[in-house]
Design goal:
Blueprint lengths: L2 H26 L20 E17 L2 E2 L3 E2 L2 E16 L4 E4 L6 E6 L4 E15 L8 H21 L2 H19 L3 E3 L2 H27 L1
Helix pairs in contact: 3-4
Length: 217
């Protein structure tokens, strides 16, 4: 056996060994998948935010981008995103301005109270019907823009819903109950005070109705 024949046999044997190893690995269904991630903590902030309402939304967002080739032919790309979100609405108590009454009585005067805001949006996105153009392809920036716009649309829907109103009613009644349990009177700004008075009247009516039902039984 000459040198060239020996080399050829070694190459064929090595190739056969690799092919056989790949065959066995494919038959066994074992794949070598590796994931790497790096977590960076940028900063920690102290906050006093209270969630008072929670809502669930679904949104279908259609994205289209028209691009002309040589200013003549349209080369569109489009995608459809279905987003399901859990939205938490509440208040940032760092924006509350209050003081105790100067008269010496136990009265807490709320001078300024913030509007309800979206505190967090937890969204699950799913892409459907992704169609790229001939030269107008999707990039990482395109996907980021689509998700940002879908999230903003969800934020707007939440603020236009009944969640802010529910959060307002919840926080006012909670503050009234908390102040009453400590023997304090709560004075809100004029508009909020009228809403609180309405809530107090409704609460008192419910208590009376429950007492009447209990006495009737």
């Amino acid at each position: 056996m000459d040198f060239l024949t020996t080399v050829l046999l070694l190459i064929v044997g090595a190739g056969g060994g690799v092919a056989f190893a790949n065959f066995l690995r494919n038959r066994s269904g074992v794949t070598d998948v590796r994931h790497e991630s790096t977590l960076l903590l940028e900063r920690i902030e102290k906050v006093f935010k209270v969630v008072m309402a929670e809502g669930y939304f679904s949104e279908i967002y259609n994205y289209q981008d028209q691009k002309k080739i040589l200013y003549l032919l349209n080369d569109p790309k489009k995608a459809m995103v279905i987003a399901k979100s859990k939205v938490l609405v509440g208040f940032d108590f760092a924006k509350v301005r209050f003081r105790a009454s100067d008269t010496g009585d136990k009265k807490l005067i709320i001078e300024s109270f913030p509007e309800p805001e979206v505190l967090s949006i937890d969204t699950d996105y799913k892409f459907y019907d992704i169609q790229a153009g001939i030269l107008n392809h999707f990039s990482g920036a395109d996907y980021t823009q689509i998700l940002d716009e879908a999230k903003q649309a969800m934020n707007d829907r939440a603020l236009q819903s009944d969640l802010p109103k529910i959060a307002n009613n919840q926080i006012q009644y909670m503050m009234y109950q908390l102040a009453s349990s400590m023997g304090w009177q709560l004075q809100l700004p004029e508009a909020e005070q009228r809403q609180l008075d309405v809530l107090k009247e409704r609460a008192e009516e419910k208590i009376k109705e429950q007492k009447q039902l209990s006495s009737g039984q």
